[in-house]
Please model this.
Amino acid sequence: MSLTIAATKVSGIGLATTAVAKQYPHLVRQFPDIRDVHRWGTLNLQLEYPLRILNPDYTTTEIEWDPGFKERFSLTRIDIEPCTQAARPQPAWVYVAHRSVHRANTLFIELLTATLEVKNGDKFLVHLPSYRYTSCILL
Model:
């Protein structure tokens, strides 16, 4: 059984489009589970309820992904389900860049996932597996 939170696709600030492409080789070297994700940005979701992840599945060491700029990243495995007739849940990773302006916003998550055809306003269900209950707080 999982915990499910409704969410809506929103725009971010536009930095992930180039940043994730630069970060990807470093991230996948430390955490190969994400090797199949879209490499040119994140899927940004506005959550219906605030969520704080206390114990991510993986936190990287400091990565110098841009000259002179080092950062840690945390990744947490979830499933997302587009709210369309033919949609099925698919794996995704909550992506937390530790120096991101989004980090403190408990109603916003950035995801690494397979390439999806989505637009702002599209609805999703975010499924947190049962083992995550002790690692996340629904505020």
